[in-house]
Amino acid sequence: xxxxxxxxxxxxxxxxxxxxxxxxxxxxxxxxxxxxxxxxxxxxxxxxxxxxxxxxxxxxxxxxxxxxxxxxxxxxxxxxxxxxxxxxxxxxxxxxxxxxxxxxxxxxxxxxxxxxxxxxxxxxxxxxxxxxxxxxxxxxxxxxxxxxxx
Amino acid sequence: xxxxxxxxxxxxxxxxxxxxxxxxxxxxxxxxxxxxxxxxxxxxxxxxxxxxxxxxxxxxxxxxxxxxxxxxxxxxxxxxxxxxxxxxxxxxxxxxxxxxxxxxxxxxxxxxxxxxxxxxxxxxxxxxxxxxxxxxxxxxxxxxxxxxxxxxxxxxxxxxxxxxxxxxxxxxxxxxxxxxxxxxxxxxxxxxxxxxxxxxxxxxxxxxxxxxxx
Lengths: 150, 214
Hints:
- The complex is a heterodimer of chains A (150) and B (214).
- Chain A has one domain: MetI-like (MetI-like fold), CATH 1.10.3720.
- Helices cover 74% and strands 0% of the residues of chain A.
- Chain A has helices at residues 13-37, 42-50, 55-83, 87-92, 104-113, 118-149.
- In chain A, α5 (104-113) runs antiparallel to α6 (118-149).
- The longest helix of chain A is centred in the last third of the chain and has 32 residues, at 118-149.
- In chain B, α5 packs across α7 (143-152), α8 packs across α10 and α9 (182-189) runs antiparallel to α10.
- Chain B is an all-alpha fold.
- Chain B contains 10 helices and no strands.
- Chains A and B meet through α1, α3, α4, α5 and α6 of A and α1, α2, α3, α4 and α5 of B.
């Protein structure tokens, strides 16, 4: 039985990047959430338990609302970090096979240092920055809206 | 405080803000002005500060591989963020509810070991791959830098320091915002020197955040 070469396979290259990135940064999310969970007083979940709530209901209705702001911040950090993931792509796939795993900042790097199109590469980077900033602002706005509603 | 010293303090604060903004925004502004220049203008020395801007770089953006690369970025970023939350939240929840011995050690060991292992593997792989790669990849600008980084660890530490400083700074601001006057005012009431009212309580907070940020 032979295993496919994950990073050079058309079907698995992008998945292998996603898996490696998740594996590398999972502890960051874990630590942020753990810190948030340790600040929740036990009284709320104990009260819910006395009222007959199940463990899943306690998690969904008591714990999750408490950690939602931290989840938002950690999702934003992860999103920004993943969008600018460069070394993983560079060392695992080099943007290949073809241009299948060529993400925007790797593309900008190739334009600037492989083909010497520095102006064009700068334009790509500026547009990427604006798009990532708008996604982040969208997430922050969602967080504020959620707080205002609650 | 006299009105003159209040005015001076206000001016100094504004100057500090402007200076910080210039330092933070200068690389971006340089990048922005390059995006409005043609390649010939960019490569001119000394670089011309006054020039006729061109939108050529932006118009050719949509006829190139930019959109497909951005889709790849979005796909990998959203999936890896989703997966990190999907696995990270239940794992942290389970550990927070676990009352067994060694919980504290485990809660530090998991993030530290996993991330440290990832970093080490990252750079070891880089060094191996940059030696094994075809010449086309080996000759790329930056390959030597990464090899040096993986072999000495010096640049690695510098990068960690830079990343950590950003993250720690960002998260410490939250603490400042939550209680900007409380502790310094208490110190003032106790007769603490002016420059120590902020430094003494806030420096340990920053260091604590800094140490936990990477």
